[in-house]
Amino acid sequence: DQSASAVDPEVAAVLEAELARQRGTLEMIASENFVPRAVLEAQGSVLTNKYAEGYPGRRYYGGCEEVDKVETLAIERAKSLFDAEYANVQPHSGAQANAAVYHALLSHGDTVMGLQLAHGGHLTHGMKINFSGKNYDIAAYGLNPETHRIDMDMVREQALAVRPKMIIAGWSAYPRQLDFEAFRQIADEVGAFLWTDMAHFAGLVAAGLHPNPVGHSDVVTTTIHKTLGGPRSGMILSRDSSAYAKKLNSAVFPGQQGGPLMHVVAAKAVALRIAATEAFKDRQARTVEGAKILAERLNAPDVAAAGVGLVTGGTDVHLVLVDLRNSDMDGQQAEDLLDDVGITVNRNAVPWDPRPAAVTSGLRIGTPALATRGFGAAQFEEVADILAAALVAGRGADVEALRGRVKRLTDEFPLYEGLEQVRK
Ligand code: PLP
User: According to its UniProt record, which cofactors does this protein need (predicted)?
Assistant: First the structure.
């Protein structure tokens, strides 16, 4: 018996317990999703055995005829989905796609403008101890202190002052859409590259529910596993195949990586095919609608009276940022309380957060995984009400009652029905 349960019962137990955890809770981490079974199958396949350094038709290993086909499928699907002329589907992760962009377009010490981490930017957009912050001269831009939105006049003013070589549009925790045309104009005015990191909202772009940055940016990166709903990994796109293709390809391999993970590339191909379907569009529409339903409920007077608010007062995307600065709970306490209720979220700094990053005064709450699970308006209304009840009552919340309401939802919408993670 070579099954995981026979070979390694300890790991097998984790696989089973994690499946049970995912089934039994409401997953509301904005960067997570549930991959379709076809993606699990591709990612769990024998393609994991294959070395394929290089690119389709130009490999440094023999036996690549099958994996060449799958990488070509992934590339063609990515290009068609996002209206790009160039795609590189080899980055192992979002961070590695981003590292390749720096590597391809910049020299050590060049000036870069990205959104501050504390205002919703990503680590790879210039955080001090990330490779980006260590190797480049980072002049991060912040949010408008009054609106808590990205203010394109402020971005322009800063760009004129620091003359960056590259401007980054994109975020990890921000509830609004970006103005790519304005970013393009500013980049042109100061002679900077414009790189958009659409990791969070790529699924919305694919569904036509968010402006597509590809036409406005020199380079676009994304993860595949957030709203896009595929395997954990990254990719790079560009509207123009001639300008940066060679530099980007060689920045990924051999610049940043060795052999691509061909099982993951195959899983990406599957996810990108699914992302072109009507069912996917419907899912993304329910994702955005769900976030709006959360915003509406969390803006109600009973929630406001408990000192709980929303950053920017609402959302245009798949998440809301809850502001707990005036609540009795900090981000850590609220995350723990929701965890007890059966709702998984992450604490998150709010702009100008008075608390340290390990505690925070906020929560980031997203709807992509629940939309994938099948939730529509009625279920999101119930989820929003459970969240509101917990955040209003705080540590006095009736955890048992709320857990019961969560269980009714998870029972009604079974996840991976019939899937056995481990063969017995
Ligand atoms: N870019 C953005 C905007 C992100 O939010 C993230 C993930 O949190 C990444 C890149 C990095 O992706 P990964 O975790 O795959 O390295």
Answer: pyridoxal 5'-phosphate
Q: CA 152 to CA 182: how far, in whole Å? A: 7
Question: Could you tell me what percent of the chain has a pLDDT over 70?
Answer: 100
H-type helices in 218-326, by residue range? 245-250, 262-274, 278-298, 301-305
43 Cα distance to chain centroid: 19
Residue having the nearest C-alpha atom to atom 13 of ligand 1: 94
Q: Is 54 annotated in some ligand binding site?
A: no
**Residues forming a β-bridge with 193:** 166
Asked whether this complex has an ipTM greater than 0.95, the answer is yes
pLDDT at 243: 81
Cα distance between residue 348 and residue 346, in whole Å: 6
User: If you measure from the C-alpha of residue 101 to the centroid of ligand 1, how many angstroms do you get, rounded to a whole number?
Assistant: 14
Whether ligand 1 lies within 6 angstroms of the CB of 197 is answered as yes
3-state secondary structure at position 327: coil
Task: Compute, in angstroms, the gap from residue 122 CA to the centroid of ligand 1.
Answer: 7
pLDDT digits (tens, 9 = 90+) for 145-165: 999 999 999 999 999 999 999
